[in-house]
Structure formats: C-alpha cells, structure tokens
Amino acid sequence: MLYSFLSHSQRRWEGEYNRLGLQAGVNHFNIHTGNFDVEPGTSWTAGFTGRASYYDDFQFIYGLNFFDLNAKIRGRQKQEDLEANEDVKFNMIGVQASFLGSYKIIGNYLSIEAGPVVQVNGKFEPRQDRELFYLEEYDIQASDIEKVSTVNFNVAAGISGGFENVKFFAQYQYGVNNFFGGLSGENLEEIDPRATDISGSMTLITGGIMVFL
C-alpha cells in the first residue's frame, strides 16, 4: 500500500502541475539614466503566484506582487551650494502583474522563465525631510521629479527551483518604457534649462521563496 501511494504521488508530481501559492523576497532596484547618478536600493516584495502545466515541458506562471522600491540620488540643501554631498532617499510602492512562460530543465525541480510584467506604482517620493533638496548640479528639487510614469512595462527573465510545495526563485526585470515619462508635462526646463529630456529605464532584481498551497 505504501509503495502504491508513493508511486501515485510521484506520478502526480512529475505529470500535470497546477498550484497556487504565496511568495516573498527581497528586491534590488536601480534606474539607468544619463541625468542622475542613482544609487540602487534594496527592499521587499510579496504576493501571490500560480503555476500550471501547459504542454509537455512548458508551464504558465502568473502572479500579483506588491513591492516597495528604494533608491538614492545625491543632493544639496541650498541652491548656492557647489557640491551635492548628501543622499536624498526616494521610495515608491506599487503592484506588478506578471505573465511568464516557463520551460522545465529538470522535471518540476528546475525551470527557466520569461515574459512581460505590467507595473502600476505611486509617486517616486523623496524622504520628507529632503524633498526640497536640489538634485546634483540641477536647480530642480527632489519633489520636482516624483511624478514618474505610473504604469510601467517590464520584461522579465529568471530561474526557479525546488520541490512540489516549496521553490526558490531569482528574476531580473528591465523597464522598456521611460521611467521618468510622467515628467514630460511638468515643464522642468522652465526651472532649469538643463532639465530637459529626463529619461531612464528601471531595472529590478528579485529573489525569494514560493510556498504552494
């Protein structure tokens, strides 16, 4: 009887797979831009995930994840200061919906995945006590760049591995749209003629654990 139960469990594990679960981990956020020297930051991500067999060694992965992102830009307290010598910390919260295709490398134990991610986020807010700091050599203040794009489209690629109920994952995301696109109507060039065409692409590295129910 025990042999029969183990054989049935093994067939179920190696065959069709359709599970819902929770996931949590850490993220490393950065913005690649020629306008500012951004220092990446680390924070958290958590949410829901699902994984289902599609065809042969292919699976479909979907998820809804909440996140907190941090980064720093150098700033100066007074406009007449010659050097930006203090960090201005920025924070942003939001949610991501991911739709990934997965290919099993070693059965259900190890797989690679890739696909699109839609991100909806709030403002890129500076820390309250530094929102009036001037950024780097510009005459614009930290609060002037908080209205970034509220909808961002990323492409993701990653790897996951583990067992039936517990898996670990690592993922890299690259933003395909202009992260600072929301600033296009803010007329920052009227404050500082150098603050034109501010653009950048976000990147996000995440890693963590998934627990399937």
Span from first to last CA?
A: 26 Å
The first-level CATH class name: Mainly Beta
Uncertain runs: 1-13
Beta-strand residue fraction: over 45%
Helix content: under 10%
Q: CATH topology, which one? A: Porin
Q: Give the neighbour order of strands across the main sheet.
A: 1-2-3-4-5-8-9-10
CATH architecture classification: Beta Barrel
Q: Nearest-angstrom radius of gyration?
A: 21 Å
Count of spatially separate domains? 1
Derived structural class? mainly beta
Give the number of DSSP strands: 10
- General shape: elongated
Put simply, the count of helices is 1
Organism: Salinimicrobium marinum
Protein name: Outer membrane protein beta-barrel domain-containing protein
Tags for this model:
213 residues, mainly beta, Porin, eight-stranded antiparallel beta barrel, 1 helix, 10 strands, disordered N terminus
